Amino acid sequence: MRSDISKFIKGVDTKKRILEIGPLDTPIFKKSEADVYYADVRSDAELLEIYKHEPRVLNAVPIDFVIKESYAAALKDVPKFDYVVSCHVLEHMPRLIEFLLDIQKIMTDGGIFWALLPDHRYCFDHFRQPTSFAEAWYIHTTKMPYAPWRVMDHILDTARCNNPVEFWKDDNLAVAHLLSNDRQWNAVVTRYQSVLDGSDLDGHHSVFTPKSFLYLTYNMIRARLFPWRYKSFCFTPYKEFTFAFSLAACPAMLSDPEMAQYELAKIAALLDEDEKMLNGKTIQWI
Question: Which CATH number does the domain 1-286 belong to among 3.40.50.150, 3.40.50.10490, 3.40.50.970, 3.20.20.150?
Answer without folding.
Answer: 3.40.50.150
